[in-house]
Amino acid sequence: MRVLITGGTSGLGSAMAEALRADGHHVVLTGRDADRAAAAAAEIGANGIAMDVRDPDSVRAGRDRVLDLFGGLDVLINNAGIGMRTVNPRFLTEPQPFWEVPEAGFRDVVETNLTGYFLVAKAFVPDLLASPSGRIINITMNHETMRRTGFVPYGPSRAGAESLSRIMAADLADTSVRVNLLLPGGATVTGMIPDGAVDTSKLLPADVLAAPVRWLCSAAADQVHDERIVATEFDEWLRHRRG
C-alpha cells in the first residue's frame, strides 16, 4: 500500500510510519519543515516531504510530490495536529477559561487540527477513488477530552474533526474508499504534555496505534467503514467483530 501520514515526524505519526514500513508499505510522511521530515523518514526508509496542512497551496504541492513518488495513493492518515500547550503551556495545572484564549492561538489549533484534515482529504480523494483499496484514517481522541475544562481550542478542534470524519464516511459510503476514526484511548507520550506535568509512567506509549493502524492498512480491513477504533480496546473490538 502507498501511505501518506501527515504530521509524521514525531509522536503518534512517527510510530505509525515505523510500524507500516515494517509491514512493507510504501510510506511518505509530512512535516512543516522539509529537513526534519526528510531526516525522520530516512531513519525508517520512508519518504519525507514538507507540507503545511493549514495552507491549500502547500497541500497541493505535497500532493504533486506524492504522485511523483508513488504515482497514486491508497491510504491517507490524517494525523497532523497541535495541542493545548501551544496556547497555554500550563493547561494541566492552570486551566484557562475559553474567554482568555488568544484569538490567534484558537485559529492556529483549529486550522491545523480541523481545517488541515479537510484540506488534505479534499486534495487526495481523487487519488484514493482511483485506488483499488482507498482508505482514510482520521486520528482523534477521547470524547471526554473534547468536553474537558480548559481545553479550548483543542477539544473543539478534535470534536470538529470527528464530525468531519463521519460526514466523509457518509459522502464516500457508495464508493470504494473506506473512512475510519482511530484514537489512542488515553494520554500518550507525544510531546503535547508539558514536561513534569504528569507521571509519564502513566502515559500510553507512542506506538499504541501501531497494531490497529497495521490492521486498518491490511486486506482484513477492506470493508471496514465508519468505525471508531480505540487502540487500548482494539483486541477486544477485533474479537467482537470476528464473532
Molecular structure report:
With 243 residues, the protein is α/β, with parallel strands linked by helices. The chain has one domain: Rossmann fold (3-Layer(aba) Sandwich), CATH 3.40.50.720. Helices cover 42% and strands 13% of the residues. It has eight helices and seven strands, in the order βαβαβαβαβααβαβα. Strands 3-2-1-4-5-6-7 form a seven-stranded parallel sheet, sandwiched between helices. The two termini are 27 Å apart.
Note the main attributes of this structure.
single chain; 243 residues; alpha/beta; Rossmann fold; globular
The CATH superfamily turns out to be NAD(P)-binding Rossmann-like Domain
Please, how many domains?
A: 1
Q: Taking strands numbered 1, 2, ... along the chain, how are they ordered across the largest sheet?
A: 3-2-1-4-5-6-7
Question: Which structural class best describes the helix and strand composition?
Answer: alpha/beta
Topology at a glance:
Elements: E1 2-5, H1 11-22, E2 26-31, H2 34-42, E3 47-50, H3 56-70, E4 75-78, H4 103-130, E5 135-139, H5 143-146, H6 154-171, E6 178-183, H7 210-216, E7 228-230, H8 234-242
Parallel strand pairs: 1-2, 1-4, 2-3, 4-5, 5-6, 6-7
